[in-house]
Design goal:
Number of strands: 8
Bound molecules: adenosine monophosphate
Oligomer: single chain
CATH topology: Rossmann fold
CATH class: Alpha Beta
Largest sheet: 5 strands, parallel
Number of helices: 9
Number of domains: 1
Radius of gyration: 17 Å
Mean pLDDT: 93
Length: 228
Amino acid sequence: MAPESRAPERLDRAVIFLGPPGAGKGTQAKELAKLYRAPHLSTGDMFREHVSLGTPLGEQVKPIMARGDLVPDSLVLKMVRERIERPDCSHGFVFDGFPRTVAQAQYLSVLLRQNGYRPPLVVHFALDPVLVLKRITGRRVCKVGGEIYNIYERPPKVEGRCDNDGGELIQRADDREEVVAPRLQAYEKLTEPLVSYYRRLGRLHDVDASKSIDDVREQMLEIVRNSR
Ligand code: AMP
């Protein structure tokens, strides 16, 4: 049976995608959100939009992102709270890139309780550090629709052009090799502790993110279906 026909219900909860940059969280979060018709909440995408629109928040976070550092919790949490309190989130949503620190996770659990949600489901994308580097430096993103490619593992049909809309494929400013090291350090120091945090709470489910996109998608959907 096609996965689409097996997922008519709503998510009715927060699903968190946790893992190093380049592990495939964005690709799979978009898939899950589409399948369950739930909002895909990527804090990285939200910040990039603020930067490209030149909003005051964008001006504040631009140099931080360019260095590969994490944006301070105060800015992230305000943006997330405002977003999940919008009506389109009332039947569940998919977080991609949030929470990134234990403090963010603790705040989120209060926020979810206050808004009547059950505890989140956490999908952990486990990936060997060597592959992480290849995934990040090979990533290209469509300037028009945001579709994600990888020049090594998922190249477009025509070099530099999106298969969907022909949009130009670009490399994210923070995917350049010189910014990758600080991003990975931030992940190891601040975000990786969330793996044991959520595991202790019994919320964490691992996927082997080294597999193909289709395989990872199946692992991920299996977890979501089995933890209703
Ligand atoms: P991402 O697209 O998830 O890799 O995020 C890109 C950049 O946005 C990160 O390197 C951070 O500078 C910032 N960012 C995104 N999400 C968060 C978050 N939850 N906490 C702090 N900074 C974040």
